[in-house]
Amino acid sequence: MSIGSCTPLPITPGIVEFSPAAFVAAYPMFSTVQEVVLTSNFTQACLMLDNSCCSVVRDAPTRMALLNLIVAHITALTSGVSGQPPSGLVGRVSNAQQGSVSVQAEYSSTVTNSQAYWVQTPWGAQFWAATARFRAATYFSPRGEDSAYGAAWGAWPE
Question: Distance between CA 140 and CA 142 in Å, rounded?
Answer without folding.
Answer: 6
